Amino acid sequence: LSISQFRIPSSKMSTGVEKPCSVLIDYDAPNPPTSTEITNILLKGRMEEKIDALKTLILVMMHDENYPKLMMPVIQSTVILDNHELKKLLLIYWELVDKVNADGTLKDEIILVCNSIRNDLLHSNEFIRGRTLRLVSKLKYRGILDSIQQPIIDNLAHDNSYVKRNALMCILSIYNAFGSDYFEDVEDQVEKLLVYETDLSTKRNAFLLLFTINQNRAFDYLNNLLNSDQANEIGDLMQLAILEFLRKKCKSDPGEKAKFLKVIFNFTNSKSTAVLFECANTLIQLTSSNVAVKLAVTSYVQLLNSQSDNNVKMIILDRLSDLKTKHAKILEEQVLDLLKTLASPSHHIRDKALNLVFDLSTASNISSIVTVFEKELVRIQHSTEGEDIDYRQLLIKTIHRCAVKFPDIAENVVQLLMNHCFNDNESSNQLEVVLFVREIIDKYATLKESILEKLCDSINHVKKEEVFRVMLWILGEYSETPEQIARTFETLDVPFAYLRSLIQAFEEDVNADFNDQEGQKEEKPKKQKRLTTKTIVLDDGSYGTEVLNEQEEESHDTKYEGVFKQVFTDSYYLCSVVAMAMAKLVYKLKDNKPLFNKFAVESMLKLCIFLKLQKLNLRLDNDTKNRIEYCIRLMSDPSTMRESSFLESGREVLAEMINHRKQVEKEEEETAAGPDGVSNQNKKEAEEKVVKHPDSLFNIRQLKGKSGLGAIDLGDEDTFGELEGFSNALEKKQNFSARLDKVQQ
Questions:
Q1: How far, in Å, CA of 85 to CA of 74, rounded?
Q2: What is the distance between the alpha carbons of residues 73 and 112, in angstroms, rounded to a whole number?
Q3: Which residues make Cβ contacts (< 8 Å) with residue 426, sequence separation at least 6?
Q4: Cα–Cα–Cα angle for 655, 656, 659, nearest 5°?
């Protein structure tokens, strides 16, 4: 028989006495046996049949079947038998069976049951004694407890610890139910168990019982224990019970808090992780002292780095996150230890730890934090595992947030972000990073050269159009020296070579179709072949060489994988951005005639490629087409465009956009914070306020004078101010003729 114990909602009898049910077993009996059938088996069957019958009776009783007349046959046929399995089933049956009549009085058969329970409490088998004590702890009837009070007390002196700890919990349960009516003189025995007992569970139960019966004696015992320097040698179960006692005692008597905190400080040296965790929780609950909170935080961090269970780590990180609002200064000292949590392979733990570290970052520790992030990025730089890829994205995102929060470190992290973000086309942070780089290059002139060089190296590997456009805008806006401009044009040669090859292939196909139609098809030149040798193993085991002919591959058709491959998927805005960037670069060379002429001609030829690509279904809208043509005319005669409106307008707009964004963020923060949160609360109340109920009367109060207003109208604070102003205006209008009489000319 497999028995599972649960606490399920107890139903109340008509007399008001609760009927507990702590045993639940899944059982499906379509045809339950009758009372007569069970009675015959119990009285006349063999031992195995009686056991099966009693099992069946228990199962059907759990599912709301009532057999009130079977108690006496069960007593007659099973109580006198000395079978351990039968005894176990009887203890379950005594727990389930109704023990009172409809009027609330005990049934007559319970007297015989009490005698059986008393015998089991004095049984020679320790398990039967302990299991019977557990049964008694669930019986809340004075008529039963009166007859078995002394055997329960006698079990406190039993040699077996299993019996003693169940006896202690039985007394504790009865004391909680009936107070000091029973077991008035057990304090000495319980305290004696505390002193001489070696079993930790029994000692813990004894302390809980003594604390419930007499808190002063429990406190005296605890003082003696601490004075003997044995606090760390009493075991984790006892320490947990003491911590629970101290929490309750401090809340009831705050004056003793200082004395109890010393005990908790001693328990923080325990080797038990459960005790260490409870000590930290207790310190946080009892005091806000910096010393205590610092010790609690240290304990949390120690557990965080020593435990491998992810659930434990998540709980501790949540506790630390709750503490950061009031004790951020203390947590800031543990930031480097918190970063050790990043060694966990769990994505959720890493994410929560990075968010916590970011919230605790300050100007004094941000350098150390970023250094750890850099080491982590280097460690997983070439990893292709899914966990490391997600982790790399988290690190890049956090470094970016740190650079935005602390602009002073931007100079140190911008190269780091660019190296790890632009080289990974799967990165979801590319756009955020390139927008951040756009702000940095305008603020830090010393980083301009290195940023431009990195952008030129990376732009042809970017596959996201929005990222490519921002990178190209930066190159066109901040490339100023001839060397920088020449490097940018050299970078753009690669995508335009790809587009030029597409046009060439298209024209070859058109000519081939035309020759086929005219019957003048010319033989295509054969592609050059090249010979290669390969070492092979012959049938006889010797080595030989094999000559292979391979066609030379086409030049760069399939090698380019950049964003220009998307130019045929309605990405015509990209063509406009490229045209404007090239026009800016060429215009900056107007004082250098040789370079101006060279790059102007090259740029106009490249932009003409966009116009030619319309033959290959490149759908350019009119705005993009006009913009490209405008840039071509500008490069042919740049004197028509003023320098300020063409070169400086972009940076001015960028500066305005950044300032506006900062101002909006500042206003949002001020609005969100408010004076002690009042603004948010008022806003929420205003949204939730009910203006009018659907069944309320609809009165147009503005059509009433003051004389027509009742008490309800005057009590309406929402409209009375407006109404009063209207009434005053009305009175002024009515008395206008009277006031004219006072006018003297």
A1: 15
A2: 12
A3: 389
A4: 85
Per-residue buried b or exposed e for 642-671, using 16+ beta carbons within 10 Å of the residue's own CB: eeeebbeeeeeeeeeeeeeeeeeeeeeeee
Sign of the alpha-carbon torsion through 601, 606, 611, 616: positive
**SS3 state at 536:** strand
Supply the DSSP string of 30-98, one letter for each residue: SSPPPHHHHHHHHHHS-HHHHHHHHHHHHHHHHTT---GGGHHHHHHHHTT---HHHHHHHHHHHHHS-
- Tell me the two tokens of residue 663: 């101002």
Q: Coil, strand, or helix at residue 574?
A: helix
CB atoms within 10 A of CB 194: 24
pLDDT tens track for 403-455: 888 878 877 788 777 877 766 666 666 787 888 888 888 777 788 888 888 88
Give CA–CA dist 88/55, Å, rounded. 11
| Token pair recorded at residue 714 | 């005057």
Q: Find out whether 552 and 531 touch, Cβ atoms under 8 Å.
A: no
Encoded amino acid at 572, one letter: Y
Residue 529: phi, psi to the nearest 5? -110, 155
Q: Are strands 4-5 and 23-24 parallel, antiparallel or unpaired?
A: antiparallel
The pair of structure tokens assigned to 609 is 């490629």
Which 3-state string (H, E, C) describes 86-155?
A: HHHHHHHHHHHCCCECCCCCECCCHHHHHHHHHHHHCCCCHHHHHHHHHHHCCCCCHHHHHHHHHHHHHH
Long-range contacts of 672-679, Cβ-Cβ distance < 8 Å, separation of 24 or more: none
Q: Alpha-carbon torsion 3, 7, 10, 16, what sign?
A: positive
Q: Which of 363, 307, 308, 311 is nearest to 335 (CA)?
A: 363
Q: Cα(524)–Cα(235) distance, rounded to whole angstroms?
A: 92
Which of 658, 648, 652 minimizes the C-alpha distance to 440?
Answer: 658
User: What is the pTM (predicted TM-score) of this model?
Assistant: 0.63
Residues 6+ apart with CB under 8 A from 158: 126, 129, 164, 167
pLDDT in tens, 226-255: 776 665 567 788 888 888 888 887 777 777
| DSSP letter assigned to residue 706 | G
Query: What is the CB-side half-sphere exposure of residue 562 using CA atoms within 13 A?
Result: 25
